[in-house]
Amino acid sequence: MRKKLSLLLVMALVLTLCGCNSSKQNNTSKADDDKIEIGFTLDTFVMERWERDRDIFISRANELGAEVNVQSANGDIEEQRKQVKYFIDQGVDVIVIVPIDCNSLAEEVQMAKDAGIKVISYDRLIQDAPVDLYITFDNTMVGTLMGESLANVGTNDKRIIMVSGPTTDSNVIMVDAGFTSVVEEKGYKIIDTTYIENWKQNLAYDYINDNIDKVKEANVIMCGNDALAGQVILALLERNMVDDYIIIGQDADLDACQRIVEGTQYLTIYKPISELATSAADCAVKLAKDEELSYTARIQNGSQYINYIGLRPYQVNKDNMDKTVIDEGFHRREDVYLNVKNSEGDSPKGK
Asked: Between 217 and 25, whose confidence is greater?
């Protein structure tokens, strides 16, 4: 009888302990469920700027208690579709998308919305899709600033070639519109425009070499970003022609800033990525919590109007390099002026 009683007491103790462990596991699972999860799919990491966006976004989201699952589609739209669907299957709270093709993700965005997941279109505008927010820089202003920079060039030659990004990127259309409206008003003539498929840098290099006679007719080359500008400059350097051109880009990549102080590139557009990525992370967390956003405007993405935040870009040239990207900590002065020697033959140091 005593043995049976002892056995019953042991069994009761075991069941009690199991019940405690089960309760603890359930509480942990609930805590995990309460943690905000963000899926972030980017076009590619080939371009310098997207690595910055990723790192700053993750850092800010982590500060706010959110976890971020980052995927790179490597320029493959079908892969990006799969990534969005993967995030839906994972039941994330918010999906942030840097679209490869702005015209090809409406179905996936709708699937996310049907699943109760918020969607942010980051830097590029997904067309005909019910996104909760489009956050970017004012791309029309980017083009306007590019065009306005030519007012200070002081040349009578006013012939432009545009080496633009792909038309699948909605930003390209807005940048080009801002640029052309300004330069046409100033009397410039655009003698040719090429659109570089999927931002493939080698195609910009090939364009210069394959169209050299047409290139010789121009004196300004507007490039869709600094990576394309780098390949245009390389092709011109190989022909000892780079000094004949005013070359403009955007993104303030380090090598572009180096080219500007060295004299081979005239201008870039600085877009404070820290501000963009931080603001996007803040908005993602607010959306996950169903909190109200402070957006600056609404913009049409084809079939509807959506919430829009457009941040301000800035011109960067040789004269204001220190006061923009360097003073704001975007690049270090010693890196920007790495290849520039002062009168004593040393690379310049900070003032």
From this structure: 217
Q: How far apart are alpha carbons 97 and 119 in whole angstroms?
A: 8
Residue pair 175/204 in contact by the 8 Å Cβ criterion: no
Contact 119, 125 (CB under 8 A): no
For 348, list phi and psi in degrees, rounded to 5.
-65, 145
Instruction: Please give the structure tokens belonging to residue 247.
Output: 């070359």
**Distance in angstroms (rounded) separating the CA atoms of residues 145 and 137:** 13
Residue 49 — pLDDT band, cuts 50, 70, 90?
confident
pLDDT at residue 345 tops 60: no
Q: What does DSSP say about strands 37-42 and 94-97: parallel, antiparallel, or unpaired?
A: parallel
Q: E strands within 145-212?
A: 159-164, 189-195
pLDDT per residue over 281-327, tens digit each?
999 999 999 999 887 789 999 888 999 999 999 999 999 999 999 99
Q: How many CA atoms lie within 13 A of 27 on its CB side?
A: 6
Residue-level pLDDT at 303: 80
The rounded mean pLDDT for the chain is: 87
| Helix (H) or strand (E) segment spanning residue 141 | helix 139-149
Confidence of residue 156 (pLDDT cuts 50, 70, 90): low
Residues sharing a CB contact under 8 Å with residue 26, sequence separation 6 or more, in sequence order = none
Residue 146 main-chain phi, psi, to 5 deg: -60, -45
Q: Which of 48, 142, 43, 47 is nearest to 331 (CA)?
A: 48
C-alpha radius of gyration, the chain, whole number = 26
Contact call for residues 316 and 252 (beta carbons, < 8 A):
yes
Question: What is the C-alpha separation between 346 and 348, in angstroms, rounded?
Answer: 6
Is beta strand 305-311 parallel, antiparallel or unpaired with respect to 297-300?
antiparallel
